[in-house]
Write a structure and sequence with these properties.
2 copies of one chain form a homodimer. Chain A has 16 helices and 29 strands. By secondary structure, chain A is of the alpha/beta class. In chain A, strand 14 and strand 15 form a beta hairpin. In chain A, helix 4 packs parallel to helix 6 and helix 11 runs antiparallel to helix 12.
């Protein structure tokens, strides 16, 4: 018998369901009320909410809360450092049922093939992974990525099943400048949702950005900024990520009138945060602690997000909706006793109850290719060393700093007294030999060097160091691992974290990756980098689209 | 210069817009606040809301309210009796900017060609006409329509530009019975909105209907019924039509939590009501008079509807949105001083300010074809006359009434003492010669007969009369006009209203059609039919999908 007739039989004639969740307090996101009822599920779909009792299996909830599982409105799963199946193992036990992810890190490395590899990896996971198509790869012409998403590639990817729309249009300067190529990419997504990225945009500039087609934004950090976006019709995604915590500042905007236009996003969450704090569950905890009504918070974390992204039949406990559900002891801790995906229990007591196969596709292996590198390649000409990247702890913005280079033997060298280090970026996709070198101030290393093949957005190898030998050794170590993080002192690699998947993701499980990441950050601090997250900060030092200064593989970039 | 660069220039560099609406009180549907500002418009699109002054034209609003023009969530424009351009002339001055219309009356007569003719007629009107694809043509196998919308035809029509989704799935008994053909039609609209039609459905039956795919409903008449639909995730369309007035009963359901899931629909509004009372403006007046916050009411009548139907960039006053706007003196009368469509003034002081060409397409002409008809064709066998259609004034439901036929010369004949009249339905699309005859009680004619080629949903010719001669004359008159309404007494046609467009629409303007309609209803009452709307009621006496009894061209139909 087909699924439809079976569901009709359960609803109309009390034929047995697959599963009944008995005696729940059901969170109704449409009325924002709690309904004491049982939920019947068949073939992964909710048949009804009411008085059901016939089923192959009954789970007695004894008054626990039952809600739709949570949906992240904007994330890059790559920021977790986890390959997609491991990412699912990390977030599903936290109650995440779906994410809208922009895989622009993978796509910067591996292009459409990488996008397809992510789609393939998502298939079969107990997590709805809805992809937006990266719109800005490379992020700018000032860095060399492994791939380019042309208008044609964007069109092709938008036609794939499982895509939710156009990924964040980060090139807002290009939009405001009227770049026709940018506009072609926006138009390619006509009729689809188009995610925005408009940090700090206000007033007329914001008008110009919005009228160009973007329909949502997750970059607001200021209340007034968020209000301007909301009142101009953008879906307001309130971000709680590893470094960005915007909930506290933006929550006053959520009221009886505006709540339907607000949802939550994490943007970037590293594995350590996922392990120790959680995902959307943590955002919900914070929101409720800050005073948001818990049912409204759940609505924002479920239906609002699904509705905005036009995800069909997810985000509510109602007939015909996918049985993507969380069972919660209370609406404060948001601890998930059980998590169901398509009607199957996929997590229990915070632990995954599903098996994944982590086969890394060939398209994402062996992606690190650098030209032979010697000290002469990372020589810094004093003429190019009158400006430095001013790192700011805990932020991805930098300052453009005027400096007097310390010159030895005709070249600019690090000056530890002034915390002037060398910042190097080596193209690593096609072994072009491109190397950019500049000064960085504010990083604080006292000895050794760090290197990373996570270097937003082009993911070249970025290194910071106190001397050329250690810098070269760190870069070499990263290349040898086919990507990863390395900490070097006195010519010795003192710690390394391999990231062999596209050079940016671990192939290991959450706990192991998180521990290795915590450890190497510790070692980085041991070398003197008194930052919250030395490698976390280093990963943004080559990103050519955020003010004020960077070093990419093409050299020093001033963005003021 | 292309439109995008022009809009950027206006937003960013104060280049002149086409039009500025100066000093308005702008209704912001996202924040539900009033914003004192000016609105800049270029190429039909809103560039920004703020402090604008450079434009080819400035309209000074001196503090009048500016809101998005109104959107009807579910209508059959055919119920107005007006051909689409005249319908636009009727509703645009009332502030209507868009309608989501299910042209199932036209399609019952003329099939896909009729659908295409409506699409063609909509092009160029200063009104967004968004079509849903009729899902139930014919309404049931118990009546003979002029066309059939097969699954293939539905698929074809859904692919046309300008379609908003699947039209109301009226065959809820077929859905609940698991009719595979019905399900094919529902599945044809996967990924699209699917309008529902679930009058009185509750509990498990409602679950079954919803899980089959329908996402909205406009048929609720009871508060509890509407609550059940809302809490199961249906978009609740609160209906205010010619006969159905559900606002008063359902409004208590609209609160701080539920308002985003509610909107307004008129379903059926005749030309007289459009002329004398209005359209969405009248619904807004009533809603506000009944206590709904006016800004929330506007949001429900604009953005909510657009958002549900996924109409792109309409329903708000914000950058990038179509400049489909109304200027209102106040938020009580909702009188529209000006109406703009795509930035052009299209109505002023309640009068249309646009020209239409009312070319009736060939596909909708000469659609009435009946076989020669004589008294023997409308003979009623006493064995078939033990049941009657029990008409209920002002309602489309009927009662199935047991009666004792009055028999003369071996046939059942009208009995005026018991208000037992003859109800006849003649197939009129393909001259099949199908004729259904039965008794009707409660219509009240004392002499003569009425006939109409508006006969939901198949639009055959339906007639009611006190004697065979007048019945035949009335039918004959309708056929002669190529469709219309006729009132006959003593063998003479005392009034007629030609409806030559598909046999169901006038080709004359609003005022003329409304007057003719009012007059012929008056004449029908003069013949003794003491009903609110004799022809209005007659038009539903052949509709085989609403309980409890009907006469179609195939004969007497009991639906209990």
């Amino acid at each position: 018998m087909d699924r439809w007739h079976r569901a009709l039989g359960i609803a109309l004639r009390d034929e047995p369901a697959d599963l009944i969740l008995k005696n729940a307090r059901v969170v109704n996101v449409f009325t924002c009320e709690i309904q004491e009822a049982s939920v019947a599920i068949a073939d992964g779909v909710i048949v009804g909410v009411g008085d059901y009792s016939e089923a192959s299996e009954v789970i007695y909830l004894a008054g626990s809360y039952l809600a739709p599982s949570f949906i992240d409105g904007h994330i890059h799963t790559e920021s977790s450092l986890l390959w997609l199946p491991e990412f699912a193992r990390a977030v599903v036990p936290r109650g995440t049922g779906a994410v809208v992810t922009d895989p622009h890190e993978i796509v910067n490395v591996a292009g459409l093939a990488g996008f397809q590899a992510m789609l393939d990896a998502a298939a079969g996971l107990p997590l709805g992974v809805h992809f937006t198509v990266p719109s800005c790869v490379p992020a700018s012409p000032m860095e060399t990525a492994g791939a380019e998403m042309t208008t044609e590639a964007i069109q092709e990817a938008l036609a794939y099943a499982g895509t939710a729309g156009l990924g964040e249009m980060m090139n807002f300067p290009g939009v405001l400048a009227g770049d026709p190529d940018i506009y072609q990419r926006i138009r390619a997504a006509n009729g689809r949702r188009r995610d925005g990225h408009a940090p700090g945009l206000r007033g007329r500039s914001l008008d110009a950005y919005i009228l160009s087609g973007m329909t949502s934004d997750h970059e607001s950090t200021q209340l007034d900024e968020a209000r301007e976006k909301l009142e101009r019709g953008m879906m307001l995604m309130i971000r709680e990520g590893s470094t960005e915590h915007n909930l506290h500042d933006l929550l006053p905007l959520v009221n009886d009138n505006t709540f339907p236009r607000c949802c939550f996003a994490s943007d970037d969450r590293d594995c350590l945060m996922l392990l120790t704090q959680g995902h959307m569950d943590e955002t919900l905890r914070r929101a409720v602690r800050a005073g948001l009504d818990p049912i409204r918070a759940i609505r924002m974390a479920t239906f609002n997000t699904a509705d905005y992204w036009r995800l069909e039949r997810v985000g509510a406990v109602a007939p015909g909706y996918a049985a993507d559900l969380v069972i919660l002891r209370d609406l404060e801790s948001f601890e998930c006793e059980l998590v169901l995906y398509h009607g199957a229990v996929v997590a229990r007591g915070g632990e995954p109850a599903f098996i994944t196969e982590s086969v890394i596709p060939d398209a994402l292996r062996d992606t690190v290719h650098i030209a032979p590198l010697s000290a002469s390649d990372i020589r810094l000409d004093p003429a190019d060393a009158r400006r430095a990247v001013g790192a700011v702890d805990g932020q991805i913005v930098t300052r453009l700093v005027e400096v007097e280079p310390r010159v030895e033997s005709g070249e600019a060298v690090p000056d530890l007294e002034r915390d002037l280090l060398k910042l190097v970026c080596v193209e690593r996709h096609r072994a072009t030999g491109n190397v950019g070198v500049g000064y960085i101030q504010g990083f604080g290393l006292r000895r050794g060097a760090l290197a990373s093949s996570i270097a937003h957005d082009a993911h070249n190898i970025v290194a910071v160091g106190t001397n050329d030998g250690d810098i070269l050794a760190a870069i070499e170590a990263v290349a040898e691992m086919q990507g990863g993080l390395a900490a070097v002192a006195d010519g010795e690699v003192i710690d390394r974290l391999p990231l062999p998947v596209a050079g940016i993701l671990s192939d290991r499980p959450l706990a192991e990756t998180a521990e290795a990441y915590e450890r190497i950050e510790y070692h980085a601090r041991e070398l003197g980098a008194q930052l919250k997250s030395p490698f976390g900060l280093l990963a943004f030092m080559a990103l050519s689209v955020i003010p004020e200064a960077r070093v990419t593989d093409q050299g020093f970039v001033a963005l003021v």
